[in-house]
Amino acid sequence: MVARSRSDIHVPVMVDEIVRLLTTALDGAYLDLTTGLGGHLKALSLVLKPEARLYGFDKDTEALKLARENLRHCAQLKQLINASFADIDGNTSELQDRTFDGILLDLGLSSLQLDDPERGFAFQKEGPLDMRFDQRAEIPTAADLIENLNQEDLVELLRQYGEERQAGRLAAAIVRERQKEVILTTTHLADIVRQVAKPPHQKKSLARVFQALRIAVNGELDQLQQVLPKAVDLLTPGGRLAVISYHSLEDRTVKRFFRREATDCLCPPRLPVCICQHRATIKEVNRHVIVPTEKEIAQNSRARSAKLRIAEKI
Ligand SMILES: C[S@@+](CC[C@H](N)C(=O)[O-])C[C@H]1O[C@@H](n2cnc3c(N)ncnc32)[C@H](O)[C@@H]1O
Predict the structure, then answer these.
(1) In CATH, what class is 122-218?
(2) DSSP state, 50?
(3) Is it the case that residue 203 has pLDDT exceeding 80?
(4) In a 3-state reduction of DSSP, which class is residue 183?
(5) How confident is the model at residue 6, as a pLDDT?
(6) Per-residue pLDDT, 3
(7) Most CB atoms within 10 A, among 39, 67, 147, 298?
(8) Is 40 in the pocket of ligand 1 (CB under 6 A)?
(9) Contact 144, 130 (CB under 8 A)
(10) How confident is the model at residue 93 (pLDDT cuts 50, 70, 90)?
(11) Alpha carbon nearest to ligand 1 atom 22, residue
């Protein structure tokens, strides 16, 4: 058996759809704002002409190191930037291209991050409750949030970011436990959740608690809200923005943004004339969300919750 290299660990989701729907100019400039291990960039490089230009962002230093290795034969790759996509406007002025024919956001985390117990994202494996995408960032880790948030804020976090129905009981159990012992590991937190949430909903509650903490630690929804208008600004007219999301909070944010930006007037219907002066900046390429094929889900279970939306700059 051939050993898998570390850069093969993450299988890019809906890669055929991304290649087909994002590449409007075969010699154009493309920006992957969530490079991960570079799977989507690699697939794009295979169909684009040699004079095309590819750029990537990621918060995660380790992921970019592997992406560099994975993309070493990709002649179109110009630059990989270790920064948050929320800061694209401050980081693109130095690039050879100032506008892009395609921009991709493949949200959430990669298999590299999920599978490494030391990153603290998985409830199945013992590790520190870290969950920062950017391990250089001096921001509170999941363990810090668990230790320092008051019970009300913990309920709010689990409810808002995990859409967890048992948020109240879970927060109370966390607060009771932390009075006895500091909660520092994934397995310690998972045991507390298991005591409150019983099968058949236990696994879902575990996933929702871990998702909620991850979203809070990384400010994921705020950063998504910040990047969407900036990404549209950076598109060439006719260029496309593709967003793959993995839970309803992300997809709702993208859907609302696309609907709003694809609409001319946003005045309430009762007003006889437009006073908002809003003009559509994009049109939606797919009115209905695109989901992976059953074949892809069978081959890659990470794809099962993926939803793809694409918009084109007017
Ligand atoms: C689903 S993975 C991307 C996988 C990639 N498309 C591939 O095929 O290898 C998402 C990546 O986005 C990164 N990420 C999440 N939030 C980010 C942000 N605000 N800025 C930059 N990168 C971010 C994560 O570190 C992770 O590597």
Answers:
(1) mainly alpha
(2) T
(3) yes
(4) coil
(5) 56
(6) 45
(7) 67
(8) yes
(9) no
(10) confident
(11) 58
Pocket test for ligand 1, best of 110, 115, 224, 305 (most atoms within 8 A of CB): 110
Strands 282-284 and 29-32: unpaired
Lookup result for tokens 């409007």:
24
Adjacent-strand bridge partners of 53: 29
Which atom of ligand 1 is nearest the CA belonging to 67?
A: 9
Fold equal for 6-106+221-313 and 122-218: no
pLDDT, position 1: 39
Atom of ligand 1 nearest to the CA of 35: 5
Task: Report whether residue 223 contacts ligand 1, using a CB cutoff of 6 Å.
Answer: yes
Q: Where are the domains of the chain?
A: 6-106+221-313, 122-218
Half-sphere exposure of 46 (CA within 13 A, CB side): 10
At the fourth CATH level, the homologous superfamily of domain 6-106+221-313 is Vaccinia Virus protein VP39 (3.40.50.150)
Label each residue of 256-267 as H, E or C. HHHHHHCCCCCC
Specify the pTM: 0.96
Residue 237, preceding peptide bond in cis (omega within 30° of 0) = no
Atom 20 in ligand 1: which residue has the minimum CA distance?
84
Q: If you ran DSSP here, which 8-state letter would residue 45 be given?
A: H
Res 92: pLDDT? 84
Tokens coding 172 = 């109370």
